[in-house]
């Protein structure tokens, strides 16, 4: 795809990257077959190929309208199209450039600006989110259904291990996860501890940066990233083995820190080191399969449906590790039909695009329940909460199941 950049973006990092990515697209349309929004809406401009054309027009200087922005907003950034693309088009990076251009050229309506600003200020701030979420749990029966769907009942996280081990790994607690699903972090810590690994959490680390970045607050998102690097760096210097992620949405972002801060002279090298150390928990635990076989029993749960998050299977290109490990431990893992498709959660997407989000959730729940599981497991806090709002079958992180299996 030949692209002649407009003056405003020519010879800039974003312009150079957009031109390189656009140059790989051969208009084949394979991406439309695996795009959730194209499947729902049937509109070329609500599929990757159509959005690529819109972005091409924007960087060539064509007028940007609210309709253009709407088509970009509807993208889940699930990156399924990247997995499908035979030409290696890095659509996820391209759409972020397109959204940045659209934000600069189109003024959103006041209501949209208010909602997006509120989400950007509230969700990444644990000091605001945690007490508000706790209050929501107390009054949960009184909340409207759509809000009640977002407020999970209080869960017993259990104890955090206190033993010291020579082997140490960092964990990112996250911004919403400690309040919404504290049991996930605690379960992860207990499993690592059982394997002789001491889990560490840096007190000053917070949101990975994804929320603000995806809402268009790029500078604030990059500041979140710099704060995390500063919090983690002393542990890196002390020789911590890895930075373990149990939320794949955070993991895919942290693995891109090196890319996101590539032009920051003060942080570029550190960011590359952080990205290199980052591993999803599904990359860590399979290495201990033999040890886990001797430490776990199957218990009462023997059949589960697994929903692989988009940020894991498409963003991080990690497939089969969860299924393989659980199967080795005696669990029957059933993948639903169309397991490659998004559940509709996608960070703040379920708030900003509720109609599309809930349609995708219902489709996903139907496919998962058709496998007749005792339990549904996933690997990302947003997916878990979103799916649980649509089914009475228990939904949890697969690490929680593993924690329950420990002798």
Helix content: 40-55%
For the record, the CATH architecture of one domain stands as: 3-Layer(aba) Sandwich
Number of DSSP strand runs: 8
Q: Give the structural class.
A: alpha/beta
What does the average pLDDT come to?
Answer: 94
Spatial order of the strands forming the largest sheet? 2-1-3-4
Q: Tell me about the largest β-sheet.
A: 4 strands, parallel
Strand content: 5-15%
In DSSP terms (H or I, runs of 4 or more residues), the helix count works out at: 24
CATH fold title of one domain: Rossmann fold
CA-based shape: globular
Q: Which residues sit in consecutive blocks of at least 5 with pLDDT less than 50?
A: none
Query: What is the terminal-to-terminal distance?
Result: 57 Å
Determine Rg (CA atoms, Å).
Answer: 21 Å
Given this structure, which CATH class of one domain is correct?
Alpha Beta
Task: Describe this entry's structure for a reader.
The chain is an alpha/beta fold. Among the domains are: 13-105, Alpha-helical ferredoxin (Fumarate Reductase Iron-sulfur Protein, Chain B, domain 2); 284-405, Rossmann fold. It is built from 24 helices and eight strands. The chain has helices spanning 13-22, 36-41, 48-59, 66-73, 80-84, 91-105, 110-122, 126-138, 145-150, 177-180, 182-194, 210-214, 218-237, 248-254, 257-260, 268-277, 281-284, 289-295, 310-315, 321-328, 349-352, 354-369, 381-388, 398-405, and strands at residues 167-171, 197-201, 243-245, 278-280, 303-306, 332-334, 375-378, 395-397. The strands form two sheets. A four-stranded parallel sheet has the order 2-1-3-4. A four-stranded parallel sheet has the order 6-5-7-8. Helix 23 links the parallel strand 7 (375-378) and strand 8.
């Amino acid at each position: 795809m030949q692209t002649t950049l407009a003056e405003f973006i020519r010879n800039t990092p974003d312009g150079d990257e957009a031109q390189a990515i656009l140059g790989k697209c051969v208009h084949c349309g394979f991406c439309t077959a695996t795009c959730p929004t194209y499947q729902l809406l049937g509109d070329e401009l609500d599929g990757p190929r159509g959005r690529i054309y819109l972005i091409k027009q924007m960087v060539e200087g064509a007028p940007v309208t609210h309709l253009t922005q709407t088509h970009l907003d509807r993208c889940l950034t699930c990156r399924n199209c990247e997995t499908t693309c035979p030409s290696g088009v890095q659509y996820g990076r391209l759409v972020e450039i397109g959204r940045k251009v659209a934000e600069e050229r189109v003024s959103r309506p006041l209501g949209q600006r208010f909602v997006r600003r509120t989400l950007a200020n509230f969700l990444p701030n644990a000091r605001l989110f945690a007490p508000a979420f706790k209050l929501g749990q107390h009054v949960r029966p009184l909340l409207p259904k759509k809000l009640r769907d977002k407020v999970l009942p209080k869960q017993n996280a259990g104890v955090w291990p206190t033993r010291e081990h020579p082997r140490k790994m960092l964990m990112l607690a996250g911004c919403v996860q400690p309040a919404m699903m504290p049991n996930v972090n605690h379960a992860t810590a207990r499993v690592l501890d059982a394997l002789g690994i001491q889990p560490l959490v840096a007190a000053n680390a917070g949101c990975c940066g994804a929320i603000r970045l995806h809402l268009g607050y790029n500078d604030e998102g990059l500041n979140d990233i710099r704060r995390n690097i500063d919090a983690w760096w002393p542990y890196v210097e002390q020789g911590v083995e890895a930075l373990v992620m149990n939320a794949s949405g955070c993991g895919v972002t942290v693995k891109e820190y090196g890319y996101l801060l590539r032009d920051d002279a003060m942080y570029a090298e550190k960011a590359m080191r952080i990205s290199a150390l980052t591993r999803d928990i599904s990359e860590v635990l399979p290495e201990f399969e033999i040890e886990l076989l001797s430490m776990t029993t199957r218990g009462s749960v023997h059949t589960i449906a697994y929903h692989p998050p988009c940020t894991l299977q498409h963003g991080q290109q990690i497939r089969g590790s969860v299924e393989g490990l659980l199967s080795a431990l005696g669990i029957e893992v059933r993948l639903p039909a169309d397991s490659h498709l998004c559940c509709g959660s996608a960070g703040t997407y379920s708030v900003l695009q509720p109609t599309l989000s809930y349609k995708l959730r219902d489709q996903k729940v139907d496919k998962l329940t058709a496998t007749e599981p005792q339990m549904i497991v996933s690997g990302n806090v947003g997916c878990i909460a979103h799916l649980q709002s649509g089914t009475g079958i228990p939904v949890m992180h697969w690490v929680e199941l593993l924690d329950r299996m420990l002798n």
